[in-house]
Design goal:
The protein has 17 helices and twelve strands. By secondary structure, it is α+β, with helices and mostly antiparallel strands. Among the domains are: about 100 residues, no CATH class; about 35 residues. This is Transposase.
Length: about 425
Amino acid sequence: MIDLVTDAFAGRFGRVEPRRAAAQFVTGLLTDLEIKTCWQLAEQAGHGRPDAMQRLLYRAKWDADAVRDDVRQVVADRLGDPDGVLVVDETGDLKKGTHTVGVQRQYTGTAGRIENAQVGVFLAYASRHGHTLIDRRVYLPKSWTGDRQRCQQAGVPDDITFATRSELADHMITAAVDALVPARWVAADEAYGNNTGLRARLRALRLGYVLAVSRDHLVPIGAGKTRCRADQLAADLPATGWTRRSAGDGSKGPRFYDWAWLADVGADGDPDDDGRHSLLIRRNNSTGELAFYRCWTPGPVTLAQLVRVAGIRWTVEESFQAGKGQVGLDQHQVRRWTSWHRFTTLALAALAILALCTATSRTPEHHGQDDMIELTVNEIRRLINVLLIRPTHSIAYSLRWSTWRRRHQARAKRAHYARRLNLELQP
């Protein structure tokens, strides 16, 4: 499966050296290295120095978006299903300083508060066969797009202007549709569900959606302009308005919630809109906590279908967990625009390998075995390390790398000390 994915984008490299380095980079991301930076990946690949890996991210000529397209196509070919779901979400990486592309003090769900962070918006694909991330965009706040000198220093192309996170989601979904990724649905959390423009765009693409919205979200009622808060609509429901259904299987069994479905509410007023609008409400049967979803489909739909899509949204969280825990998605120690997109694209390729291996391993004969669970992404990566990736290098090789690292760090230390002293001596 490693060769299947890396061969899919091999033709994007004009020279053999970066082509080989890219395949080794992806393989290195699948290893059990604790830290997955250019230094560690170069050592794992058997290089004497990190130059080839660093050149791959910084100076080599190749198009990260084209490689992304190839990875997305492999995923669509192997996991594709007409009832597939595109899931949008974002994740933040905490950063120090101000020079890393996109970094500023902003809210990130990773930390649960405002921190100095870089935020990436991602698109995942989920079907009955499996799920993985298939696209990415780095979010540039106005503090960046309004400072062209800062953008130039980080290598941001001149034609990149400010785009909201919902607009970045729109771009990725549209690209997936244009690439004929088989999908019928879109799911996202309330940061995207509250956006009127994104909902309109999805209707134009004829994609059904189950988008979370906030409890104070104003839902249009009837043919007029009357709007009512989502939580008020829930409070007015009778006890008979709720039904218990599973939103899918979790690690501890089916995830049962109480659901209420208000059909024919929530129309945004598009003159050409001929679809079915509704509001879906989920209630935790233990805590009573409520969640709300604006829904639209181009044709008739059942409650079971909407509940399934609402439950699938959590697969993107699993993909983030696997991406960061298994292939180092958050370990990019790069500052520039191009380098971020290149590292992240190769991490998506590594994650796709795990997703495809997991899907392939779930054959009908294994599905019914009660004495063991199906192979997970974590277990697949362990097996890849044991069965496919080259064993640990010799002691002499490891010592040579230790010597190189300490000499490089000594040079960096001297440079930092000299810079600090020069600053102190300036009048």
